[in-house]
Each structure stands twice: as structure tokens, then as C-alpha cells.
Amino acid sequence: MWLEDGSNAVGVAVIYGMGGIGKTTIAKAAYNRNFGRFQGSSFLADIREAAEQPYGFVRLQRKLLSDIQKGKAKKIDNIDEGIIKIKHAVCNKRLPIVLDDVNDLDQFNAILGMREWFYPGSKIIITTRHEHLLKAHEGCTMFEVEELNEYESLELFSWHAFGQPQPIEGYMELSRPAVEHCGVIPLALQVLGSSLSGKEVDVWHSALQKLCEIPNVKIQKILRISYDSLRDDHDKNIFLHIAYFFIGKEKDTGTERMRYISIGNLVLSIVEPANPNVKIRGLNACVLYARRPDHKGDERVASEHFVKVSNETKGRMWTYSPVAMALPRENQDMLWLSHWIFGDDELEGGEELRISVKSGLWAKEFAIQLVHEEENKGKGVGSHGEDIVTLPWNQNVVKAGDVPGSVSASKSEM
């Protein structure tokens, strides 16, 4: 094992993977098994969350020094002072130190800085969601925590729900949808399994039905970990675009098909490669908009909000606008999601499609996805499972706050 390799080098290991997948559990197990062989130790948990609190870095530095010096840590007034004191404290002892949930290089530097400070044979373990966080620090040993497969997920769920590696008799058909609800997140499997442990079949039925209508608060918090870890609103908005379009789809589909995204410049020109076996049947559009800083609450701005789509090759143009539209409050972003169907010859592969957003509001960015159907030889037109993606709602326009609406479209020759 890496912690037991006997090397005199100062080792840095990075355990990385998606949120809730078990990185902290692995780090704790390794730490608890080995800390007694060293001259001191420290486990700093939830660094990302702690760093967001007032004086968060200074408090982490104090805890690190207190752990290393057996409660004899001196007062620290600022980060720079803490770095100096940590440097003196770690240079004369072999130490294992765990930095749990690091999501910024500044967090690492504020607590530990350079490995040259450490006494030979010391070990530093870092858990993070970001694989490339420490790419500037050469010589890190990388450990990826891989996702559980279907059978491993069921086994983990069963240990928490039944105290054994498989469901007890009569519960298999109930366990599978419960596991599917949690995805591959071990922490979510643990929470749901523990909550259903010892419950009768009718309670399971009721709980699973409720999960479909009202998500479990604890599980939602776990599943939100990855979203909250995104660095800024720009990344979060792109995440939401993809999530809205690909609800219920395989995870590998989204990043492959969501290829037309415009940020800042609200005009896109698309040329979809020609394929004789694939027809372009429509498009999905997602527009992120907000109230203009100088705009008052005028309901008429909805009539000024539309998407213009033109086939530059054939000289045809369509204009799509929402019949009803929710107006955002100040400092609030909203999404306008729509799905439109093309006629048989309105857009074909190899033709240029130009799309632009016009708005009386403030359209920040938008994303477009073309919808396809594949012609199966001898069977007419059928679904092409990888390519057909439509929005999961019945109405044509979906807005924040569940404001109902529809799309009005006008066509013209250019």
C-alpha cells in the first residue's frame, strides 16, 4: 500500500472522483489504519466547506498545528503567519496528513504549501473532485475512485437495508428501483438503504412512490454536491442546459450531443454533417435570460423575446416566440426551453442553419440541439435511440415557476 511503502520521500497522493462516491471513506480507512506508525498526524475534513466560513483557512491551520503539536498550537492571526508556523512544525516529524475535499489550489497552498517543508517519509493525502487540481505539482500519485456498477450498487444498498450483500426474499423487485433512484452514488445508497432498513413491504412501496413525487432531502443534498462544486455561474448554467435536455438519458449522451452552445454572442451558425440515413426533424433550444439592469417590470417585453431560425442555404426563415413568459426578478436568471419540429425538407444535412436570439430582456446565452431520426431500411422512419432527444415536458414552452405557455411560429421566404 502507498502509505506503507517505506520510502523516505515526501509522498503526495490525490484521491479523485465525483462527489459522494467514497473518496473520504477511503481516505479515513487508510488514515485510521496507519496513523499510529507516525510521530504525529492530522485529518482535516470538509476543507471546501470550512474555507467558505469567516476565517476558515486560519481555523484549519490552527487545527492542523493543534493535531501535530498535541494541543500545544500557538495563536494564529492570519494565513501568512499560519503558513510560517506550519512550516516549522512539519519539518522535524514524520506525519500523515489528510486534506479532505479540496477544490482549489489556494486551499492546498494555504495549509501546506510545498512538500519540501516536510520531514522525510511524511505522507500527504488529498481528496478532490478535480482530477487536474495538482497538475502543477509534479510527482503526485493519482488514485481514481471509479463508479460502482449495477451489481456493486445493489450490494452496497443491501448491506445498509438488510445487513447482507443481497436483498432478502420478496424485496428484490423493490430494491432495484431504489438503487436506480440513487444512481451510482454510494452516499445516496447508504442514506436510502438505512432509511428503509427493517421496514415492511407496504412502507417500501409508499416510500418509493413518494421519492418519485418528492425527492428525499438528504439524497438531494448529496446529489447536489457536484453542482455546488462547479467554480462559477457560467459552469453551473452550462450544467443546467445539459441537465434539462437529457433528463432520463444515459450520462454519456449529453456531452456528445450538446455541441452548439453560444455564450455572449447570441448568434449561431450550424452546418450539420450530411447523412443519407438520418433526417433532421427539429431542434431543442434553451435560452438563459435575465432582466436588463435598466429595465422596468413591463409585461410587454415578452412580445420582444423570440428566436429567429433561418436556413441560409434554401433562403427560408422561421420566428419562434413564447405566448406567455415569466419575467425574472432583479438579480435572477431564468430559462426558456422549447422544442420545435421541422417539415420534411426544411433542413437537411450539409445546409447552413443560422440561429439568433432577440430579446427585450437580457439574453445571456443559449444552447441548441438538433433532433434526428434514422431511416431503417425496409421499416420506414424509426427512432434512433442515441440521437432523438426531446424535452421531457408536454407543453412546448417551459419556464421557471411552471408558467404554462406555447409557441407561435411564423414562416417566410428570405
TrEMBL record:
Instruction: Spell out the Pfam families in the cross-references.
Output: NB-ARC (PF00931)
InterPro entries per UniProt: Apaf_helical, Disease_R_plants, NB-ARC, P-loop_NTPase
Biological process according to GO = defense response
Give the protein name, as stated in the record.
TMV resistance protein N-like
GO MF annotations, alphabetized? ADP binding
Origin: domain of life:
Eukaryota
The NB-ARC domain, residue ranges: 8-163
